[in-house]
Amino acid sequence: MFPQLTLNQRGKVNTCNLVVSHARICCRNLIMLETKRIYQILVFSALTLRCHNIQHAHLKVLLQQSL
């Protein structure tokens, strides 16, 4: 699926996708403050994992949709 990436890099991409999926599910049932906290965690996780396919704009849309 990601032939140009090493096994470690593939793991980071998969982990990053799981973080996003988990936040999408959780944000639907949380109040605004909790949603903001998850948004911050999501941004931090994406940056930490250097997940280039997740852009800041997508995170903002995710936050807006969940409120």
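That was protein one. Protein two is written in the same sequence-then-structure order:
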Amino acid sequence: MDAEEQFGVLRELQDEGKVRALGLSQVSVEEPGSGRQALHRVHGPEPLQPDRPQAPRTSCATRRRTASVSSPGRRFPQASLAQPGGPLDEAAKRLGTTTSQVALAWLLRRSPVMMPIPGTGSVQHLEENMAAAGITLDDATYAELEAAGK
């Protein structure tokens, strides 16, 4: 079954209320026969990337219940964000968390339709990543990270 047919079936399941959202990661629209092309033809996704303004695409993606993410080889737009003494490190010290947890909490706050996909090498790392969902960034910390990420 090719990608377009697969996403057609998934779209039917979504229309029946059995699947809430569809999305892809790590594919480009230029890849011939890619799932992203198929999803676009079947459902019309909105591209979301953590280093770009989200407002118009976020509301559209929320209405359509679909999104695709493509940022191969990139973690953050500026490497200085994650450096010792950088904004993520300082926020992590204030919150008593890891820089990775702050980064995930930041991404989760940016958009109700963004789903970070962090790497996980152990059960402990998985638990650490999952704990990021419980971190609440205050407005000042969020604004600091947003400014540093531009």
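The CA atoms of residues 21 and 145 lie 28 Å apart. Keep this in mind for the problem set.
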